[in-house]
Write a structure and sequence with these properties.
The protein has ten helices and 20 strands.
């Protein structure tokens, strides 16, 4: 069942604002790092909070609702510099040996990844659980990986233990995401781009005398770029971007609701080390060439369990649901098979108001038997069982640029 996008009213987002005030969710440890744009965020009225070991902007003065809608109708700029950018090199000075070695830890087709393209993949443990989800970029003479901030140290250690003889360095660079229908035009006013850069392609350009790399990707479901650039020019870059009409800064709250509307997973909620690729419904990231009968079948950590899941199905999977207006079921909310009594059959992994939909949406990890049926399901919120309406994902259609 598809959903037509429509504007939601402000009254639908009380639960959203309560969520970002949750002290347990945003408890200071006293050891938070800051990105190079920290002063910029504060100067522009950002509400700051700890996230993945960094102080990050939750939202700016206009609030998360306007930031969310700016991304859907114009463009939004996100500081994602907390994410780790890793360059992996081989003594030969070629990327090919790195990509071949990475196939041993990531069940993706990396050997055939073209130069200046990127691919989504999963780092798996021996039990088939997801250590992290990553982006792998063929950067010509080396490989760049972008990994989640909270997993960075773990990922580096894991890679170092399985990529003997390779160099792994963490870059001290900013990462800025520019997302929305006006994103490409805003970026093109600042930097020179090749004639056409399509979804998941990468381009090298220059800003203010510094080399930058732009990947046509993002985590909002919209067209746009993720821009890696030296920290010294990061503030100038975002300042110039938001001078454009319809382009504004956005924080973590809007980023979360945008990625949920797009049906995209968040590490630590929708997947973790105890969740397999098939249970998380991320089986699409494992191509035929790495599956049973493929030309490069298996050969990656966790292959036995992963291939068995792909062949026979896991006990659980992820589905999308719509919740009643004004009652967004949060991560961890139990899901039952009846309005009273019955048994728990699932768990909300991500839930939020969805401004582009007009009512809350959620992703549920649910028993596969119920995922494949039309039986009603209910979320237990504050002691009440609320009906959930099953819905195809994404909740809002993707608008990635795949060519004219």
């Amino acid at each position: 069942m598809g959903i037509a996008a429509r504007n939601g009213s402000r009254s639908n987002f009380k639960g959203w604002m309560l969520e970002i005030r949750d002290e347990k969710r945003h408890k200071l440890s006293g050891e938070e790092k800051t990105t190079c744009l920290n002063d910029f965020h504060i100067a522009h009225g950002a509400r700051m909070a700890p996230f993945a070991g960094y102080m990050m902007p939750l939202n700016y003065t206009d609030g998360p609702l306007k930031e969310h809608m700016a991304c859907r109708t114009g463009a939004a700029v996100f500081d994602v510099s907390h994410m780790a950018q890793l360059d992996i090199t081989h003594p030969s000075g070629q990327a090919a040996p790195v990509l071949a070695a990475l196939e041993g830890v990531i069940p993706a087709n990396l050997i055939d990844l073209p130069e200046y393209h990127q691919r989504y993949g999963l780092l798996l443990n021996p039990q088939g659980g997801i250590l992290d989800d990553v982006m792998v970029i063929h950067a010509g003479s080396y490989v760049r990986m972008v990994v989640n901030a909270a997993c960075a140290d773990k990922d580096i250690s894991w890679l170092a233990g399985h990529l003997t003889g390779f160099g792994i360095s963490r870059l001290q660079r900013a990462l800025v995401a520019v997302q929305g229908p006006a994103a490409a035009k805003a970026v093109a006013q600042l930097v020179s781009l090749p004639e056409e850069v399509r979804f998941l392609q990468v381009a090298v350009s220059e800003f203010d005398g510094q080399q930058i790399e732009l990947s046509r990707s993002g985590y909002t479901g919209e067209d746009g770029f993720e821009v890696s650039l030296p920290e010294i020019v990061a503030e100038g870059f975002v300042t110039r971007l938001i001078e454009n009409e319809g382009v504004q800064m956005a924080g973590l709250v809007a980023r979360d609701s945008l990625r949920l509307e797009a049906g995209l997973c968040l590490y630590g909620q929708d997947m973790d080390e105890d969740i397999s690729a098939v249970t998380a419904s991320l089986h699409w990231s494992i191509p035929k060439i790495r599956r049973k009968g493929g030309a490069r079948e298996a050969g990656f950590i966790g292959a036995d369990i992963t291939l068995a899941d792909l062949a026979g199905g896991s006990a659980e999977c992820r589905i999308g649901v719509i919740a009643p207006k004004g009652v967004p079921p949060r991560s961890g909310t139990p899901v039952f098979d009846s309005k009273a009594g019955g048994r728990q059959i699932g768990l909300v992994t991500s839930g939020s108001p969805a401004p582009s939909v007009g009512q809350p949406v959620a992703m549920v990890r649910i028993d596969r038997d119920f995922a494949n049926s039309d039986a009603p399901v209910f979320a237990e919120v504050r002691g009440r069982r609320l009906p959930l309406t099953r819905c195809d994902m994404p909740f809002v259609a993707h608008r990635f640029y795949r060519g004219s």
